[in-house]
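User: My advisor, Dr. K., asked me to get a structural model of this assembly before our group meeting. I'm new to this, so sorry if the format is off. These are the inputs:
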Amino acid sequence: MKRVLSGIQPTSDSFHLGNYLGAVKQWVELQDGHDAFYCIVDLHALTIETDPALLRKRTLASAAQLLALGISPEKSTLFVQSQVPQHNQLGWIMECLTGFGEASRMTQFKDKSSKVGADSSRVGLFTYPMLQAADILLYQAHFVPVGEDQRQHIELTRDLAGRFNSRYGQTFQLPEAYILKTAAKINDIQEPTSKMSKSSGAVAGVIEIMDAPEVNLKKIRSAMTDAGREVKYDMAEKPGISNLLTIHSALSGQTIANLENEFAGKGYGDFKAAVADVVVEYLRPIRAKAMELLEDEKHLLDILHSGSAKARTVAQETIETTYKNLGVVL
Ligand code: TRP
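Assistant: The format is fine. Below is the predicted structure of the whole assembly, which you can bring to the meeting.
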């Protein structure tokens, strides 16, 4: 079985619909037929100032949501990055393999550091991609399911793996980016030409998995629509309606063409009520399941500890080969 590995940062209390449809849903599908490792990358979340109580809460909330959304601890290895110290061990080696110029060309670093200025950016933000390379290479992953924005980090990971292998002998599997399908790309429901995102969008444009049903109902009822009154998929002329059609279709499984037929002759109001209904009913059991998992913290920690123990076994093997090939005295 081919191995897949991916990571998600515990940076908020709730994932949003875009995270689910753009990534986690496909992680769930990949559990069948692959040896899947999914990591809550809490160390990566430390590149900005964090509040200890929030970090803890969000790490647990992320785990509960991943499980509620269908990541199964029987099928996958779900674990917390900081519980596997081998990530830091290999991270340092990756840093020692990366050129300063090479790291400076990472667009995510350039974007994020330009916001606060290079002088106030953390060194951890600069070395972030090398820790990410370690996340992947430790598990000898074949595929890394990520969004398009992570492609450059996966390319760097491949370069580092190839560099190490040719200098010190075969050690790492060269991973491939498995770019997640953009078919279900979900946009902000208030600014439907931008991607749904908590860092750039307003609260009203983002559907949160952990929000109460009434909150999401209201948000969708007041979603931005377009000129005209026909429910038709047309990203250029009707980005608002098209986005809502995408959301409905992704959750209900109905085709967009079917939905256009169903709402022919009806107004935007009826359509938005139907979308709200589909979203709220879809998320209701997921939110309930996540809340149930959060109520029994000991059980949730047991799941994470056993995932992390499995991850450590695999990671330790890679560290031993890496150290041996480097000439470290063991
Ligand atoms: N950088 C990724 C993101 O922002 C998160 C991540 C960290 C990751 N380590 C990873 C993704 C390893 C895939 C594999 O989305």
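One thing worth pointing out at the meeting: The pocket of tryptophan is lined by residues 5-7, 9, 41, 44, 132, 135-136, 144, 146, 150 (CB under 6 Å).

User: Perfect, thanks a lot.
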